[in-house]
Amino acid sequence: MKTEHERKLDKIKKCLRLANSSNEHEAAAALRQARKMMDEIGVSADDVAASDAAEARVRSQALQQPPKWEQSLAFVVAEAIGCGVYFSYGVDLHFIKKPGQYVFVGCGGDQAIASYAFSVLYRQLKAARKQYLRLHLKRCKRANRMDRADSFCAGWVFSVRAKIGLLTIPPERLRAIQTYLSQIDMSPAPAEKSSARADIRYNDFNSGYRAGREVDLRKPMTGDAAQLEALR
Question: What is the pTM of this model?
Fold first, then answer.
């Protein structure tokens, strides 16, 4: 059930839509009414626009510095579904660092679809990374192993990005998302650095790219009930 504040916001949005009427008298009256109600509840035009957007969060394994490939996957999914995304991290009441979260911002439930899609693809990518480490990088030194595995993941994400394409976000939703994000204090998450040699990165990137081509975007991993319809 909507709160009184939410109901008033809905009325304001209705008036603002009427303010675009070709009837100039109707448009002027609707705009005056919208401004009056906005003053009554103390909201700005940006607040009204941002109210159409909502969040959905997915937990990351990183506390503050997620790897580049993980961030890339989040941005790829967000673009494909038509959402914004940012990485959130902080500390609890005892000043202990908490696991970070990817926050997807969208309209009309898109944020929930994006968070679900990311969760499914993220699990598949972690499984592929683990298998690549076990089968191909077992004898490498730890630092080199991690760098090469990161390159594999980057190739995997690049391959998936090519498969799912992008959606064109309707202007009104884009404005809502951008306005919502502009009202949030979010410092960019520093990404982990990679020191792997270029030739090794290239070979492992290609291995990841080939593995990513085998990903079926319509079939979630075992245990997920719904399918990723938005990524067809």
Answer: 0.75
Tally of domains in the chain? 2
pLDDT tens-digit map of 59-109: 888 887 889 999 999 999 999 888 999 998 866 656 667 788 999 999 888
pLDDT digits (tens, 9 = 90+) for 96-138: 677 889 999 998 889 999 999 999 999 999 999 999 999 888 8
Domain assignment of residue 22, given as a range = 4-43
**Statement to judge: residues 111 and 216 lie in one domain:** yes
Q: Are residues 69 and 136 in the same domain?
A: yes
Domain shared by 74 and 154, yes or no:
yes
Is the Cβ–Cβ distance between 61 and 101 less than 8 Å?
no
What lies within 8 Å, CB to CB, of 123 at 6+ separation is: 221
Burial of 56 (0-12, 13-18, 19+ CB in 10 A): buried
